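Dear Dr. K.,

Following up on our conversation at the group meeting, I've run the structure prediction for Ammonium transporter AmtB-like domain-containing protein from Daphnia pulex. I'm pasting the input sequence below exactly as I used it, so you can double-check it against your construct before we proceed with anything downstream. Let me know if the numbering doesn't match what you have in your notebook.
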Amino acid sequence: MSLKHFLMHGRHIPFLLGIQMAFIILFGVFVEYDKEADSGKAINANATTNEGNTIGHYYPMFQDVHVMMFIGFGFLMTFLKKYGYSAVAVNFLIAAIVLQWATLCQGFYHTFDGRRIHITITSLLNADFASATVLISFGAVIGVTTPLQLAVMAVCEIAIFASNEHLGLEILRISDVGASMLVHVFGAYFGLAVSCVLRRDVSSEKEGATYNSDIFAMIGTIFLWLFWPSFNAGLAEGDAQHRAVINTYYSLAACCVTAFAISALVSKEHKFDMVHIQNSTLAGGVAIGTAADMMIHPFGAMIVGSIAGTVSVLGYRYLTPVVNRRLGIHDTCGVHNLHGMPGMIAGIVGAITAAAATQEEYGYSLYRQFSARAPLAGTPEFKALHHHIEHLEPGLGRSASMQGGYQIATLFITLAIAISGGLVTGLILRLPIFGKVHQDHLFDDEMCWEVPEADHPQLEQIPSHNASPSPMVLHQF
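The predicted structure tokens came back this morning:
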């Protein structure tokens, strides 16, 4: 192998080895087990069961979310007829990088004691949520970026994401249990901003689906649909977790039925469009995310899911072709329709529900649900509540309307940070050192993979009902 060939096709090798070595060093210097996982702590001296340890509470939800990241998101992108290896395996690679990097970035904000980052099962769950952010952005640029560009994008994005997450949860004190604003909105518009900067002619007959590739993509859809209640409820506790599962369950069900109906409605022959079914059926999980643990009631969750399914399908059918044609923003998987717009709906629904929350409806759990609404420390109101609520932490004394205002403000702050961060990251990715995909290799595994010739034939493209006049077949991620 010549040096020129290595510089052309092997740039990702030293980056991957270097960043993994850096992670090992940083973990060695800064990371240690939290007391629940540390055998040397006195509380674990006689522990023979998980009683009193959070692993038993969080691990089932964590495992569901883990499956979503590696099987759900990965297989959802296998619709591209000649990009199946990369859809699943590069998703695998990028998520593995992000899990480690997010542990560090989020740890410095949440569990750093001035010397060490303490990790628990919730650290792993939060890292999975962070990986979802990058995988959503991945959907906007899949097939038109190199593995090195994607890895660099992931590193930049997580650093910005962790800062925005800290701003929303710790400083502005908002409630976003399903991370629809902090993950879905951020990931979608960050990815679209990167795509905007990387703007190029990406017209290719390879950007299409086949009958078999669409079936594989449906595997991802079903896994995501089944486990989405765990995603939205993973970090909730008690009655809030119970509500989050119920609300997400019914929102997804209503979204699924509505998406099927609207898909057939907007089709010229009133047939179902697989693009819509693979993706718009999931929009209800995103749209209910922020308010999933709030008292929105099952019928309210169903309304939200129905709206999300409708908006997502209509976005596919009418909006995405216009955005691609007039703004020149290529969106391979159409992340705007599944994560962007439904995430905006979630932020608005969450703000309205928070502004309507009362102690009569929530009881004393109102102050766990919206921690900033608890009275200020030392006030008579705080002392009175402290008798009823164990381990109550002082709040900021916000009213319901103020909490709703902070919720909506966080939505637009997240949107601004995501777009600006994506634009800067896109400029970084355009540097020649990171290379770019040759026109002939767009949406093609052969650029990075050893592909058996017999398994990589020229396949006939299935036209999409919502495709723009260009040869693109737009899929939702």
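Two things stood out to me. The two ends are 37 Å apart (CA to CA). The mean pLDDT is 89.

Best regards,
J.T.
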